[in-house]
Amino acid sequence: MRRPRPLAPAPGQESVWDYPRPPRVERVPERVTIRLGGELIADTRDALRVLETSHPPVYYLPMADFVAGALTEASGSSFCEFKGAARYLDVRGGGLVAAGAAWNYPQPSAGFEELDDRVAVYAGPMDECTVGGEVVFPQPGGFYGGWVTSSVVGPFKGVPGSLGW
Length: 165
Known about the structure:
By secondary structure, the protein is an all-beta fold. It has strands at residues 14-15, 24-27, 32-36, 39-44, 48-51, 58-62, 71-80, 84-93, 96-104, 118-121, 128-131, 134-135, 137-138, 147-148, 152-153. The relative contact order is 0.23.
């Protein structure tokens, strides 16, 4: 499959097609929040984002910055060629449970040790996820967990026909 034509970023934007492969981990200076069931379940100024070619950033928050009981182990696992073996977590808030809506790497691979004790959350099942006060949109498709903000342009992996990108 041919690589799609990247959109040109405007001033202050990034193209996901300029992100590296293998991915890069970087600190996020903005406040990141997550709400579920009408409750604020995570709030941090200590997030990391993972940047990978064709994907909007995936945000990893410290587990300690989630309210008590918001994360519980779930069934399922997956493997990333870069980050290693992932486990899934249920996300709880306001009486709601989003099954398998988060994941983390209990023993991240070399080069991704910063992800230890951090969790990424799918934005779609949440009431709201924000970065710097901006409400994010979930990455297209059902598998990838990137958060789309106005600061990134695609096209993004996950749209129909993008399997071979």
